Write the structure tokens for this entry.
Amino acid sequence: MDNSTTRRTDPDCLFCKIVAGDIPATVVHEDEATLAFRDLDPQAPTHVLVIPRHHVADVGGLATERPQDAVAVLDTVRAVAEQEGVATSGYRTVFNTGAGAQQSVFHAHVHVLGGRSMTWPPG
């Protein structure tokens, strides 16, 4: 487990480039461990991506390699839901893990969706 404070990045990763400020994003929340920004193709009135600043490919890796960042991501999800006004009415969190689950950017991230009724099963 890497508990160092040195941030690992991937120079080819879209989300690492957003963290570095090389690609613009509409940031709604940030702290030392995480960054939250609006999805460019929103699937709900509220659709925010929460990512760890440290590059890890997916949520499984985040849990084993950077558990402290996994906790920070979940705390940011809560803060974003409150800030966006969906904490009381309800919101959905989605981690897509692997190509078969439609993960398209291989940097751990969670979608925070709210502001409309969610159907089940999700798809």
Notes: Strands lie at 27-30, 34-38, 46-52, 91-94, 110-114. Residues 14-114 form a domain with the HIT family, subunit A fold (CATH 3.30.428.10).
